[in-house]
Amino acid sequence: MNLQRLLVSPAALAVAFALLVWGFWSTPLYDLDEGAFTEATREMMESGNYVSIYLNGEPRHDKPVLIYWLQAASVHLFGLNEFALRLPSVLASLGWVWALVSFGRRFVDRDTGIVAGLVLCLSLYVGLIARAAVADALLHLFLALSLFEAYRYAQKPDRATHLRVFLWMGLGFLTKGPVAVLFPFLVSGIFYLSYGRWQDWLRAIFHLPGLLLFLAVVLPWHVAVYLDTGWAFFEGFYLHHNVNRYSGAMEGHAGGPFYYLIVAPLVVMPFAAWFILLLGKLGRVMDDPLDRYIWIWFLVVLGIFSFSGTKLPHYLLYGMSGVFLLMARYRESLARAWVHLVPGLSLLVLFCFLPFIFRHLASQTDRLYETTLFLDGIEAFSGTAQWILVALAIVAMGISFIRATVWRRMLLVGFVQAVAVAFIVLPNVLGVMQDGPKAAALHAREQGKSLVFHRVYQPSVSVYARQVISRGDPEPGQWVYTRVDKLDEFMRQPSDYHKRVVFSQGVARLVAIEKKVEGPS
After folding, report:
1. Do both 353 and 303 map to the same domain?
2. Which of the chain's termini has less CB crowding within 10 Å, N or C?
3. Rounded to an integer, what distance in angstroms lies between the CA atom of residue 447 and that of residue 442?
4. What average pLDDT does range 487-493 have in this prediction?
């Protein structure tokens, strides 16, 4: 098998998926997102309450329950570790890839399905989602399944496909709430209406067996959580984390109306130019039903989130599953090699200069926390790591000159980028940020110490220490977890107790609180 065929083979797809999730079992959990999800799972298992969700001993209303159940099941099988906590996201990502490839093979052709799967696996931001112990990979799976099934049903109605749409929407609803129903509802509605088939659409959505199946999936847990906590979850999740998140920026995640048009090329690196070329074809491909459906899907997601108060890059991925298929379908349109290869090559070159970038950033800030991270980053990316990145960048540049179609060369650059991210960039970035907090938590656990947070909140520390960590005044015998930039202020505070730094790594500090020894009278 020559390189041309090997690149569109199941073996290439398997390698791409392996790179997508590589190292998920070894890199430390990151704060705040992974720490919050996994600590809530740990507390669920510790309390034995699998209905209501708590974080740090307080009710957590950010998301519905399904991801916590799956993480808990995985932990029961494999123990409380990164492998178990992230495994549900990895398996969901595998399902996401399978759904896209299968749909592409069914409605276009085999090679197009595989190329679409490769673009999905090798896109920069997908790799961050697939490895993370959060709800997003699971939601992407159920959104893709429900929207793909809705298209299948629109083309060839049958009872089993119809019911699966409602099943996937129900599971998506248990994963992240109304968004799992909103997009299938709007996308299918606009698609049917664009062909004047509004009566068919009404019959499809008001399908009694499907609605009953949806309720059978969603309703039992909602009844159980109401019986356990009353209206607290409904007010916290549906009003605060849905209505308020859309109407205003939460947690500082704001952006203008063109935010996603700017972010989109970065999300799909190294395929930014490929994606932009596809956007240029928008007006010429609407006559094809599949193209029309996918563009409606993408534009609905883009439109809704462009006017949302809270903006995060991964929201755009909700509309990208079909776009990956269109990129693969029109891959032969890529003609100008350097125009399309430059963005990916530029990112790899940027990786090579990370030590110098961190050195510059360290010189531009007087904040101790940021300075510590940047200095640790210089050390992490210098030496062997930097030389490997330089070698990978040279390999990627060499790929630019081989005799192959542009899209094949872009995929090869995607493989090089995936290797760089999986083996060098992501492990070192997470190591710089989280190795210290993880080591501090493990040290406290080994010593049997109860921890108290001082002016920080890092739930991953609670996961590794296997305890709920309060924020307040520490007692003798406890240890205080704080950051390097909060340490001096804490040590200067007047206290009846003796304070002693017992652990220091990266940005993490542990301070022992001890009774003062009375001298002779």
Report:
1. no
2. C
3. 9
4. 94
